[in-house]
TrEMBL record:
It comes from Methanococcoides burtonii (strain DSM 6242 / NBRC 107633 / OCM 468 / ACE-M). This is BioF2-like acetyltransferase domain-containing protein. InterPro entries: Acyl_CoA_acyltransferase, BioF2-like_GNAT_dom, PG_Glycine_Bridge_Synth. Gene3D superfamilies: 3.40.630.30. Residues 162-287 form the BioF2-like acetyltransferase domain. SUPFAM superfamilies: Acyl-CoA N-acyltransferases (Nat). Pfam families: Acetyltransf_6. It comes from the Archaea.
Amino acid sequence: MIEITDSLDPEVWDEFVYEHPHGNIFQTSSMANVYRQAKNYVPLSLAAIDPGNGEVLAILQASIISELSGIAGSFTGRSVIIGGPLVKDGKRGNEALSLLLKEYNSSVKSKVVYSQMRNIRDTSEIKETILSYGYEYDQHLDFLIDLDRDEAEIWSDISKSRRKGVNRAEKSGIIIQKVKNDAELQASYDLIHQTYLNVKMPVADFSLFKAIYDEFVPKDMADFFIALQNDIPVGARITLNYKDLVYDWYAGSLADVPYVDEALVWKILSENAGKYKVFDFGGAGHPDKPYGVREFKRRFGGEQVNYGRYKKVHGKVRGKMAEVGYGVYRGLK
C-alpha cells in the first residue's frame, strides 16, 4: 500500500531530497517557504510514502502561479515543477510516481490552465510514466559547465570573443560584488525586471526575489551578484546553489553597457571553480526556435544537453484563452 500526503515533515522531506541522486534546490522545503512568501505563488508539495514503515518513495513540489484570484485565476494560472518529481528506483518507485501524478493532476486541474515540468536532468527512466498521465514531451536545450577543475581550465574553454568581453568589462571599470543590502537587492531586481520587459516576457514580483534572498543567502544556497560602473548598477545575476550544482536563476543588465553579462558569468564561474561540480546555465530554448541568448551561453564552453520539458493542458478551452491573453500581454508591452 502507498499513501499520498501533503503534510510530510519538512526534515524528512529534505532528507529525501538531499540523499536522492537527483535532489535539487527546487524540491526542498526551503523552496516551499519561499513560494509561501512570494506574491502570486502557492506551493503544492506531495509525497508518496509507505504507511507501514514511513518510507518516502517519491515527492513532487510545484509552484502554482496566478496573477488573478478566484475563477479568473483558473484561466491564467499555471503550475511549474522544476527539477522534479524525485522517485526511488525500481518498480515500487514507479508505482508511487503513478499515484503521485494522479493525485497531483486531480489537485490542480481546476486551478491552473497547464502544468509544466522543467527538467534539469535526464528523466528517461520515468518518462513513460509521466507521459501516461497526459503529459507531452518537448525538447529544451541547456548548457552545463564543469566546475570541478581549476579556474584556468574553465577560462581556456571560453571562446576568444567572450574572454575579450570579460577583459574589456574590467578595463571599462565594471566591478562585480555580492549584494549586501536592501537597496542593492532592489536595484538588482529593477535591472532584471527591465530586461524582461524589453523582451516582452513576464517576470515574478519582487517578493519572490526577497524571499529567495532571505531564505537562501544565510544558508549559502544563493548568491546575488551586482555589477557596478562608476557606482551605478548596470547588471545583476542570481544563482541558486545546492549540493554539487550552481543554477543560473535570473539575470538582467542595461542594454547600453557592453560586456557586463560576460563579466557577471565569469565572476560566477571563477568564484565557484573547484567548489561545486556543475554550473547549469538555466536553459537555452527549443532547438528549432530562435533564441538569442543561446549563442551567448554556448560560447562559455559548456556541454549542450537536451533534457526537455513535459507539459499537460488541464483545460483545452482555458488553454486557448490563455494563449490569446498572453499574446495580448506581449503586444501591450
